[in-house]
Prior knowledge:
Blueprint: H1 12-32, H2 45-66, H3 72-101, H4 108-126, H5 129-152
Helix pairs in contact: 1-2, 1-5, 2-3, 2-5, 3-4, 3-5
Amino acid sequence: xxxxxxxxxxxxxxxxxxxxxxxxxxxxxxxxxxxxxxxxxxxxxxxxxxxxxxxxxxxxxxxxxxxxxxxxxxxxxxxxxxxxxxxxxxxxxxxxxxxxxxxxxxxxxxxxxxxxxxxxxxxxxxxxxxxxxxxxxxxxxxxxxxxxxxxxxx
Length: 154
């Protein structure tokens, strides 16, 4: 009998993780605002951070904890760090596209390197104690709450 490649059904733990990480993303992104230069366009900061939280929570955090795989602290920390990384990647890619449309790059490799340079710049800019602590403590809290929900909804 051929085994069907069935897609897993969504879980309540995944929903909780997605919502919590979206809220964490908005909160942490609000903490980062003062560290950007005046005039930096941050209109999409909250929506992008929330969207990355939804994606990471739904596809990574919730399923891992629902299966009981891994330590909730480690999964929560990993989730919050991945969310921050993806948010910076989106903004760095947008900056690279803007620069590329202005013909600031001579080669494709220079443009790709520009993404990672912009990510480093954003990372250095927002690597402030309050942002780091909020990201890490928020990730731990998301891990614990999602694990608690996952154990009660198995």
